Amino acid sequence: MALKVVWSQRALRDLEAIANYISCDSPAYASTVVKNIITRTRTLGQFPQIGRKVPEFDDESMRELMEYSYRIIYQVKAEHVLIAAVIHGKRILH
User: Fold this and answer.
1) pLDDT higher than threshold 80 for residue 92
2) Bridge partner residues of 63 (DSSP)
């Protein structure tokens, strides 16, 4: 049975900030990046363990996927997959 993929408010704000930043140079590219990030998360309902463990956390349920230079941080829970944040790949989580 597939899990539901749920976006946190923080992850949605992160996605909006990414779109706003990129759209200063190219609105079309901003749209493509956001669409591809969202599309990348759709497989998580069927394959929640597909991402690697987030190195900054000692928690197997905290995982990440990469899309462009962005880290899609998510947590696998019993009833759903929570997209927790979308951050630039050079940023280190604390």
Assistant:
1) no
2) 53, 74
